[in-house]
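Morning!

As promised:
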Amino acid sequence: MKQDVDKLIAGAFSGDESSLGCLLTMVENDDASVSRILEVVSSKLGRAYRIGITGSPGSGKSTLIDKLVAAMRSKGLTVGVICVDPSSPITGGAVLGDRIRMEQHYSDDGVFIRSMASRGSYGGISKAVGAAVDIFDASGKDVVVIETVGIGQEGIDITKIVDTTLLVLAPGWGDSMQLMKAGVLEVADIIVINKADLGADGLADSIREILALSTRKSAPPVIQTQAFNNIGIEDLCHELENRRNEHHHKAKER
Amino acid sequence: MSKPIKVLIAKPGLDGHDRGAITLAMGLRDEGMEVIYTGLRQTAENIVRTCSQEYVDVLGLSLLSGGHNYYFPKIIDLLKENGMGHVLVLAGGIIPNEDRKSLKEKGIKEIFGPGTPISEIADFIRKNIKGEDS
């Protein structure tokens, strides 16, 4: 069995997608070989820039990722995407529906999309996501993007496993009282107001006002996008690119 | 605790009708499975790539346009070529009786027509999946 796992790992790292897919399933299912997988993976970590995308259901996270991935691909970066959707608390079943927004990348060898069900975790990701990100990193992806379950307030587990956290909001999300509350707004590195064509200036102003009153050392940028129309994506990419450079700079210093 | 069964529901080729595919996706969700739906008008290559990346246990192909004799065998071959020959492949939609035998010989494990109860499909999956009782 151990030999099989090493074969799978070798396959996954040389670009065989079903081997990589199988490793991800093994960590999801808490297979007996997980410790061996993580042992090999941990010796190859540190290259990938990790972006977490969180926000309420229907705010456009998947569509935004679709456009971000296209922009990264145009720069020649390879991308791994992990999309988490909720498992039913009643049956354990799930419909994993984020991949369908990323159809333009189905045939691109530089993009690997993996859907995962939350399987009883309530922090917006599943237990296996951390290991899955490491596997993508070790397999040589330049960027790993993780989309959480649609959440808005408490789910900040994602921030612990990524370099940069994006919070995606949509107009109509709430007033300044919502913005004062504890939670994701405290930890987001970049705030995106998507569907900005529905009128985002009011929300953007409220966010900036509340952030100015907070004790955070540096306020996160607030960027307006219309992912569906591919508007504002460049601004967001620019911001992410700066942070990716910083990340690599820091990684070199370590 | 047994692991959830992972299913891809796919619509190959030029066929714009997916009410059946969506009904089945939600039905299998209610049966405790993790279900992904590809969306309409997919190539055989993209369906097989999705199977690999998601490492699914089951692939459900839905086709109502008459293209099954072209797409289904091609997908079975591509699955084998890509190390995914273990996937349980099922078909549904409008498949004429005279085509069933050859499709099953090719490797489609079962063909479910309109009106099949979801529970029958779910039971078939549970019975036929490799290593499920482990």
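The beta strands of chain A are 49-55, 79-85, 94-96, 111-117, 143-147, 164-169, 190-193, 222-224.

Hope this helps with the figure draft.
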